[in-house]
Design a protein that fits this description.
Number of strands: 9
Helix content: 25-40%
Strand order of the largest sheet: 1-2-3-6-5-4
Order of helices and strands: EEEHEEEHHEHHEHHE
Largest sheet: 6 strands, antiparallel, barrel
Oligomer: single chain
Number of helices: 7
Distance between the termini: 47 Å
Radius of gyration: 21 Å
Strand content: 25-35%
């Protein structure tokens, strides 16, 4: 379930609840102009009235919130220059500049809300273009309690086919179910500098590394170079 709010003096004053929102995510850019379809709006008349009123005073910006089962806000997407294109039955088509999350982000949260994330490799159920959404969810979701020292992990090249899947695997090997440890090469640097669950690595064993070298191409050596820069021994098997 989603909710809609406009920017006012009151923080996140919910106007109405919404069953679903289409076209809310985008992998190409962080912000962009697009059409959003709001499905099964609970109080469509109030929403139309409030948006039109806000448009007249040039304050037509707000947020679409993802809610948990108790209707508490989990995460939100900011939208500005809101304009209603079409209103029919309980559905609304509107446009605006949307600050996007990557595709798969809301799917990940919905699985968490439904208590479906109970083991590693749940990300394998995601399409390739949804994996960045999973990784951003993992970063948002992850709460580090202690930083591990002299960590020993094992990566199996048979378990991932591309760079996004490598980071999904690495995150869970380091920080457990739904764990995060980078989603791009620069982010791996940030994680290795600290505050992402590990103070130090003792050793990384990389099984079936020849397959990884073929799948990851130039990124394979770049990853090894990063580990080397942080003096992390990597055993290739």
């Amino acid at each position: 379930m989603f909710a809609f709010s406009l920017d006012t003096a009151k923080d996140h004053e919910i106007i109405t609840y919404i069953k679903d929102v289409k076209n809310l995510e985008n992998n190409k850019r962080n912000i962009g102009f697009r059409k959003l379809q709001l499905i099964d709006v609970e109080d469509i008349n109030k929403l139309v009235f409030e948006i039109e009123k806000a448009t007249k005073i040039y304050n037509n910006q707000g947020s679409i919130h993802l809610l948990d089962k108790n209707k508490s806000i989990i995460t939100q997407t900011f939208i500005s220059n809101i304009k209603i294109i079409k209103s029919q039955h309980n559905n609304i088509l509107l446009t605006g500049h949307v600050w996007h999350h990557p595709k798969g982000f809301h799917k990940s949260w919905q699985m968490f809300i439904n208590d479906e994330i109970k083991q590693k490799n749940i990300w394998e159920k995601f399409h390739k273009d949804e994996l960045q959404g999973w990784l951003v969810f993992a970063l948002t979701f992850q709460k580090i309690q202690i930083d591990k020292e002299n960590l020993v992990i094992q990566l199996d090249g048979n378990n991932f086919n591309n760079l996004d899947e490598f980071f999904c695997t690495l995150g869970e090997e380091v920080n457990g179910i739904c764990g995060y440890f980078g989603r791009q090469l620069p982010a791996l640097y940030d994680c290795l500098r600290g505050n992402f669950g590990v103070k130090s690595f003792e050793e990384i064993t990389w099984l079936h590394h020849q397959r990884s070298k073929k799948m990851l191409k130039n990124n394979f050596n770049k990853i090894l170079d990063i580990f080397k820069e942080f003096n992390i021994p990597v055993i290739l098997k």
